[in-house]
């Protein structure tokens, strides 16, 4: 390219020096520092994100329990009693019993009427006529925080919640002191301890046999929350610091695992005549 000015024409070089072109490149040290800063920011952010996710999961679990509490009251409104905890509990002497769970009988109240009608309620929970229906997974019966080895238990839909049959912390649970009994129904008038101070349903997400159709999802409390051995059905959850429950008044709440075991025992009975203050749990 020729540029003509007053003097002699001269040729302009099209080559650009490294100093006049673009920005200065990163050095290796600067790159490593940038990566380290990003790593620190990610490390600081991840626990907050994890905590936010668990808060959301815990809220959904609490919503499940509220839904079940409302369903229980809708059932009570229709039949004047809550459903039995288990219909025909199996024993060695009576292995043919149906062993159908309380959760079966509130299916119409949680918008699962078609599933309810597909069940053979004259057959056992593990009968061939109930195989297909029993395999149905229902989010209302599953805590989103729970850790499961498989999506189903023995081919049947899981249940992370159990009906409260009573307590064995302070004395034997005989006769059963809770609200969810075998082959027997409890109504509101029988809950003389107060419906807001009596547990109806509680988390038992560690129970390996928890199935919404199987009447084994009924238990009596024998240990502090989250302290029971794996073989024992008890109030346990995958939430940090406690477990959630539905009270007999239809409300739901989180109970800390540090709650006094005597207060916990009192909450598991329907007519124990225990005095529980508003700030006790």
Give your account of this protein's structure.
This protein is α+β, with helices and mostly antiparallel strands. The chain has one domain. It is 26% helix and 14% strand. The chain contains 5 helices and 11 strands. The strands form 4 sheets. A 5-stranded mixed β-sheet has the order 9-7-8-10-11. It has a two-stranded antiparallel ribbon with strand order 1-2. It has a two-stranded antiparallel sheet with strand order 3-4.
Oligomer: single chain
By DSSP (H or I, 4+ residues per run), the number of helices equals 5
Topology pattern, helix = H, strand = E: EEHEEHHHEEEEEEEH
Head-to-tail CA distance between termini: 89 Å
What sort of overall outline do the alpha carbons produce when their principal axes are compared?
globular
Précis, in short:
The chain has 281 residues and is of the alpha+beta class. Helices cover 26% and strands 14% of the residues.
Question: What labels would you give this structure?
Answer:
five-stranded mixed beta sheet; 11 strands; two-stranded antiparallel ribbon; alpha+beta; 281 residues
Topology:
Elements lengths: L1 E2 L6 E2 L16 H52 L6 E2 L12 E2 H4 L7 H6 L12 H4 L17 E2 L2 E2 L3 E7 L31 E5 L14 E4 L20 E6 L4 E5 L4 H7 L14
Parallel strand pairs: 7-9
Antiparallel strand pairs: 1-2, 3-4, 5-6, 7-8, 8-10, 10-11
